Amino acid sequence: MKIMYFNDFKLGIVKGDNVVDVSAVVQSIPHTGPHDLINNLIADFDNWRAKLEAAVASGTGVPLSSVRIRPPLLRPGTIDCMAVNYMEDGTRDAPAPINAFNKANGAIIGNGDTMVLPDVPATLFEGEAEIAVVIGKRATNVKAADAMKYIFGYMCFIDGSARGLPPPSNVFFQMKSRDTFAPIGPFIVTADEIPDPQKLQITLKVNGEVKQNFNTDDMAHKIPRCIEWISSIHTLEPGDIIATGTNHRGLSGFQDGDKIELEVEKCGKLTIHIKDDLKRTWSRETRLDRANKKLEGLTPQLSGKYTKNT
Fold first, then answer.
1. Span 262-269, mean pLDDT?
2. CATH 3.90.850.10 intervals, the chain
3. Angle 130-136-137 (CA atoms, 0-180°, nearest 5)?
4. Tens-place pLDDT, residues 222-257
5. Taking the model in full, what pTM does it have?
6. What is the DSSP string of 132-198?
7. Over the stretch 286-310, which tens digit does the pLDDT of each residue have?
8. Topology of 79-303 in CATH?
9. What DSSP element (H or E) covers 222?
10. Peptide bond into 72 cis (omega under 30)
11. What is the DSSP string of 7-40?
């Protein structure tokens, strides 16, 4: 089942190329708005699934192409992002120590929305292609062997980053939690539709050009281990997000006017746009391009405010 919000935050289920409005079916779920309606539905999904399936079976819906797709989760309790969690196509000798950081839930945007690059002296703005896990039930000190039982579903996730902000010791919060820096969607795919999330192809295009193209089988710390580790630190609640990391070799700078398309196998395609009022520019090279040229560091800024004089 593919669950989404559309137009004025109607809850919908995807049926082929259409979306069926199921808002009336779930109206009795306690909620104050769409942000906690979806979380409460996830928490009690076993008791609602049959009703939703019946509504979809009897409804025709409207074309997906005719609606505005909204973020499928608006205010998850936490967004935990795994750091350096891929083997980078075998270029790493060993997995990096398991690590993560939090991203502000106010950074969430959805399909068709715009990531806005702020007026800050970042060396480079990037967006990391990832598959995200959506938690289905409260999880505390979960063992890896049991972890998959706690997953509600999966979705596309772009981890926006403002690299190189000063001072060097003050990194992840100001780099990762900027407004609009957490695009998700276009829907949540329930876990039963993805029997093996560790064998999915992930592709990110910038203006139609493939930049990132990797498989989740290259993940260093697999999803069960991520859930085990995170739930040993804090309790996970229904609707919480775990972004599982990326293969960094294809990362390249985002800049004004870019169209970004992230496709995760079985999870659909998430499309966003980039806006930079300062119109800063960078080369289109990837990290792999720079490595092949024996160049160190991130792609330098070419023009605009904060360009370094060399």
1. 98
2. 79-303
3. 135
4. 999 999 999 999 999 999 999 999 999 999 999 999
5. 0.97
6. EEEE-S-BSS--GGGGGGGEEEEEEEEEEEEETPSSTT--HHHHH-STT-EEEEEEEEEGGG-S-TT
7. 999 999 999 999 999 999 999 985 3
8. Fumarylacetoacetate hydrolase; domain 2 (3.90.850)
9. none
10. no
11. TTTEEEEEETTEEEE-TTTTTTS--SSHHHHHHH
